[in-house]
Design brief:
The protein is mainly α. It has one domain. It is built from 3 helices and 2 strands. It is elongated.
Length: 62
Amino acid sequence: MIGTSNLDYRSLLFQYETNLFFKGKILSDFLNYIQVLKNQNIIIEINKVSKVFLSFVFLYFF
């Protein structure tokens, strides 16, 4: 299962979320494609989010 959520500020207010469910070969192909994008630095993983950044996001939206 792969869940996606809309990062638009309106979805934060209305708690709107969309979930996509994959299984089988399509899931394997999708995960391989994501890995290719990570290897090309098109998708960058952020492992740790600073408290300063979270505070800024909170102040920006509210």
